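Researcher: I need the complex structure. Ligand is uridine-diphosphate-N-acetylglucosamine. Inputs:
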Amino acid sequence: MDKFIIQKSSLKGEVKISGSKNAALPVMAATLLTDGQCVIKNVPDLSDIRTMVKILECLGKEIKFEENTLIVKKSSKKLNPGFIAPYRLVRTMRASFCCLGPLLAKRKKAKVALPGGCVIGPRPVDLHLKGLSQLGAKVSIENGYCVAGGKDLKGCHLYLGGQFGSSVLATANVLMAATLIEGKTVIEHAACEPEIEMLALFLKSMGADIEGEATPLITVRGQKSLSGTTFEVIPDRIEAATFIAAALATKSSITLTGVNLKHLTAVIDVVKMIGGQVIETNGACRVNVPSKLSPVNITTFSYPGFPTDLQAQFMVALSLASGISLITEKIYPDRFMHVAELNRMGASIQRSGPYAIIEGKEALFGAEVMASDLRASAALVIAGLAALGKTEVLRVYHIDRGYEKIEEKFSKLGAKIKREKQ
Ligand code: UD1
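Model: Output:
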């Protein structure tokens, strides 16, 4: 297991943002809808992507992944049985559950391991199952697997909202399945995230008939078959905003390239309230940060709201603001594992249910801290860059799941960060 050794740093210069992990993963699952060849460009080289490659290989695909381009085609090897996504792979990455919809629609049978709990709180899959059942699938849970059969699938009008609003991957599952299911499917309360919009555009480029992507009402008319395609993944808005949070916490000004600011409106709004500036210049984006940060109140929502995947990183910046901030977590009310670690570094954060009250401090102090999940790990790296002295972030395999070459990118910005074997 690797760890990061980090010293207080000031950042400057330019960083290139990678393709979006959360956009690439559902699109990879969507290749199960066709026997044609799919070429997917701008795919970040991450352990989650490599896990999805292994799952697709189990499901009969032959894959080449070089220089951020994935070429996915039907394997010539005879597969037996070819519809099972095994637990040993699914448990490491929940997004693999979105193979369920495409397998069901294309192969009429799917057996995908249930992903189980996760450190950021309970993560049910009831909406996925409800949506696919309403499309006519026979769904059952057998020995830790979700087994779905699809002899009588038919398009329908369905509502996909849940207790916490829309679901990104449930929308992906139902949307993908509907592209090959006879008749018209209308998904109400669909997720509007840019990653779902991109998935819809990818499916359209395969020949799917979809209207209303990027809105809560998506209409799909099922086709007999879909073809292969070539497509480029959108920039990773979460990675981009993680660097913005690092600029805020270290009170540095940096430039991001390869970023789509249209996907970051809520984040930019918060950055402005904190006192920073985000300026678009010739396809790049300049982030200017003042020496004093203002406290703000942030509530996480589904898109276009402030993303839960940035809550931990912005909490670090607010720990160094001049005053009291409040973060309300509306998507995962238990997503606060990073609070205790940040407090060990001198932050003053009190958690009560879905709320975190953050009293800004003059400084944070280096410590040995433990990464608990992907975004919390990014937050600890940012805290290390902002803190006085030396910070060791242990268990950085979490961060390798979702940030491409993070220490290289930070080093290029002048950060003092190095990776060591633990
Ligand atoms: C996706 C993202 C993840 C992000 C999350 C919320 C990917 C690969 N992952 O995860 O990084 O944190 O969106 O923006 O894109 N829910 C249910 N029942 C369900 C499904 C979800 O109640 O069947 C709840 C969840 O517990 C959560 C909320 O709905 O409270 C949103 O979750 P969801 O959008 O489904 O998250 P994911 O798609 O798994």
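Model: Summary of the prediction. The first strand starts at residue 2 and ends at 7.
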